[in-house]
Amino acid sequence: MEIIDEIIALKKNGLKNDEIADKLNIPVGTVKSKIFRYKNKITNKINIVNTNEVSLDKHCRTCGKEIKSIAGKKEKQFCSDYCRVKYWRMQKNDKKRV
Ligand SMILES: [Zn+2]
Question: Could you tell me which CATH class the domain 1-56 is placed in?
Answer without folding.
Answer: mainly alpha
